[in-house]
């Protein structure tokens, strides 16, 4: 017998953006294990197919009879046309989404203000902010009409405290926090739940992207301490989604034990 009841997830339909790797992939697999149907959306279709196979395996091993329907959809959340036509790509039986996990996002570079390329700035805002907002707008009216739904936005410690060399990324995650907070207040008279998950250091391909493919530079970010991994954040997302309908985890701030802020960490413990 498990301590926490996850049976509320059985048969629910979950949409995870950025599901091809990292937190998104781990989240999709854990929802599958919990008996949910999962729509996996990301730019890399081949990688999505591998995650969908892992979802099928996790669901089969769970022994649950409900759920277990998985769909992969190629989606670039920076493309307005792809978002507008998104539901047309989803099998009809999965179009009534219950849980939206806005996970797609990235960081690029450590340049200081004055040296930031316009293209990098625009790309981060387009994906991290405008894409998240557009996906939310795509589903919020349906959630209101059906009087159900849960929107889980992946924020960051960078949305709580800015740091040098991260001005644009921090600005995007502050925007996510503000948008999520406003949405929470707008739907207070409905059964719709709104959650923001705010991770600290998580070791995924995230830092490799930040350092433009330089894995050795990315590895140094986590040197000397034990960072979180994608599965740690997936557990928090799925736990928040499985709470009773009257319980809303509005914010969940999660750090590795040796991190206290973006700039304060202890690196002698590993």
UniProtKB/TrEMBL annotation:
Record flagged with keyword Oxidoreductase: yes
One Gene Ontology MF term: oxidoreductase activity, acting on the CH-OH group of donors, NAD or NADP as acceptor
Alphabetic keyword roster: Oxidoreductase
InterPro entries: NAD(P)-bd_dom_sf, SDR_fam
Family of the protein in this entry: Belongs to the short-chain dehydrogenases/reductases (SDR) family.
Protein name: NAD-P-binding protein
Species per Swiss-Prot/TrEMBL record: Trametes coccinea (strain BRFM310) (Pycnoporus coccineus)
Lineage: Eukaryota, Fungi, Dikarya, Basidiomycota, Agaricomycotina
């Amino acid at each position: 017998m498990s301590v926490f009841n996850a049976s509320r997830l059985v048969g629910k339909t979950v949409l995870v953006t950025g599901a091809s790797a990292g937190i998104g992939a781990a989240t999709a697999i854990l929802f599958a294990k919990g008996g949910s149907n999962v729509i996996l959306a990301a730019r890399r279709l081949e990688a999505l197919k591998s995650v969908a196979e892992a979802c099928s395996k996790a669901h089969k091993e769970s022994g649950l009879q409900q759920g277990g329907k998985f769909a992969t959809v190629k989606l670039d959340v920076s493309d307005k046309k792809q978002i507008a036509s998104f539901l047309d790509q989803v099998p009809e039986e999965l179009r009534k989404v219950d849980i939206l996990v806005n996970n797609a996002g990235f960081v690029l570079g450590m340049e200081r203000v004055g040296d930031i390329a316009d293209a990098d700035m625009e790309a981060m805002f387009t994906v991290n902010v405008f894409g998240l907002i557009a996906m939310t707008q795509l589903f919020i009216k349906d959630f209101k009409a059906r009087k159900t739904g849960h929107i889980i936005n992946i924020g960051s410690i960078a949305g709580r405290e800015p740091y040098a060399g991260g001005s644009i990324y921090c600005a995007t995650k502050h925007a996510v926090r503000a948008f999520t907070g406003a949405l929470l207040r707008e739907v207070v008279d409905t059964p719709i739940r709104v959650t923001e998950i705010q991770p600290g250091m998580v070791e995924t391909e995230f830092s490799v992207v930040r350092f433009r493919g330089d894995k050795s530079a990315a590895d140094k970010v986590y040197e000397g301490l034990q960072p979180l991994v994608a599965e740690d954040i997936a557990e928090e997302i799925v736990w928040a989604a499985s709470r009773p309908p009257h319980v809303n985890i509005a914010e969940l701030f999660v750090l590795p034990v040796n991190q206290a802020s973006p700039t304060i960490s202890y690196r002698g413990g590993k």
